[in-house]
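User: Predict the complex with 3,4-dihydroxyphenylalanine.
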Amino acid sequence: MEERVRKIEEEVKAFLVASKEDLENFRLKFISKKGAVSSLFDDLRQASVEEKKKIGKVLNELKQLAEDKFKHLQEKLDSSPDAAGGQIDLSLPVVPNKVGNLHPLNLTRYRIIEIFERLGFNVSDGPEVEDDWHNFTALNFAENHPAREMQDTFFVEKNPDVLLRTHTSNVQVRLMKNQKPPIRSIMPGRVYRNEAISARAHCFFHQVEGLYVDKKVGFSDLKQTLYHFAKEMFGQETKIRLRPSFFPFTEPSAEIDISCLICHGKGCNVCKYSGWVEIAGSGMVHPHVLKNGGIDPEEFTGFAFGMGIERITMLRYSINDLRLFSENDLRFLRQFKSVI
Ligand code: DAH
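Assistant: Here is the predicted structure with 3,4-dihydroxyphenylalanine placed in the model:
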């Protein structure tokens, strides 16, 4: 009897199944009540006690083998594309091939560049690992001024200090050194601060710096340029407001607010019920900074501004948590169409 069991086992293993019909034949031949395995069990009843023990075990294994094979083949056939009637429907639309899209911060960056390029600004770049001179000292930050404290950062080396830049303003003096006025440039890039991560702050974020140096550049040029930008970026009905402020590298300095896009000035939690949202710092370039850039402040004047790309993107798309930009959650990222 043992030999017969081995023979059926070989047959189960060798049985080829290519269709549902074959599978049904497999089931009838081996697994059904009148199948080979059942009849072996019938025969087993006549066997001696000793044989029952020995063959019973092998027979159970054979039964399991046949059932497993049946289950496996059934799943395979059910999930194959021609399971339904053995035909592929060529008229069905294809499954779309996901090619990805631009990150929302890049969408905003490109839009900012587009707006300023049309005003005659070019795009400049500067290092993220920076020396103290370009990030602070050349920008008129005094050695122990508290303004340095407000921009605490990560130091790569101490004495002489090498650090991760705290703002894109570090490109200003590099630009002045390399270029004669008129200078009209924007400088987008990543910046770093030693801050705890929350919905409103991160240890890195992105800014766009702007610099315009020429003869007779005045505060009205600054105001009109940023007003134009705000309208292009957020819609023609957008208003701006300038608030007096302090930056070591500008004099006078102003914070730029835009009218709240969410409540249109009525007051909501985005604008903290003021009707205004801050988007940039700005001012007239300090004469010390011009001098440090090798430009004569008697002959030339300039304005500068710096804005956060995250902030603008959050306003543009009503995003309420800064962390979403760097978590790489595809459910978030796929919502942005690559249209600038
Ligand atoms: N660098 C400033 C900051 O990160 C922003 C800023 C303010 C840039 C005034 C400027 C400016 O160019 O004129 O807070």
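Residues 192 and 204 are 4 Å apart (CA to CA).
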